[in-house]
Structure formats: C-alpha cells, structure tokens
Amino acid sequence: MAKKRKVRRVRKRAKKKDYWIPEDLRKGRVRRYIKRTYGNRGFTKDGKIKLEYLNKAEERAEKKGNESLARAIRLAKTLKRIGRKK
Fold first, then answer.
1. Do the domain assignments include residue 55?
2. Higher pLDDT, 3 or 67
3. 44 belongs to a structural domain
4. How many angstroms separate the CA atoms of 79 and 75, rounded?
C-alpha cells in the first residue's frame, strides 16, 4: 500500500496595501522632520533620535494639526520601545 504524500501549502504574501505599517512610516520621514526642526541636537552621537526630541516633535505636530506626522512619530516611539525589549 502506497503512503499518502503530504500536500505542502504555500502561504500567500500580503499585497502591498495590506501590510500593517501604513504610509505614516515612509522611509526617513520622522528623521527628516527632526533634522529640519531641531537640527543635530535631536540626535545622539551615533545617529539615533533622542526620545526627548521625539516627544517634542509629537507635541508640535499635534499642535499644528498634522495628525499623520504625529501618528508616524508615535509609531516610531513604539518601535523604538519594542527594539529595546529584545
């Protein structure tokens, strides 16, 4: 009696629009905003954004009514926190 072969299922990749990270995190968007607004003092010596300046930038974006940028900054803060947990 012949053995049954297992059928391997292939997972379909999500379409480009179905990724969970929205356009709020276009590459370098938050970094460019911090650089434009606060200059080099918003960064550490190794090029990472200081949390203090992320908080300031979020308040400033909300105050100016730029909700999309504020969401991007919040997401950057969350991802920064997730990176430390590992």
1. yes
2. 67
3. yes
4. 6
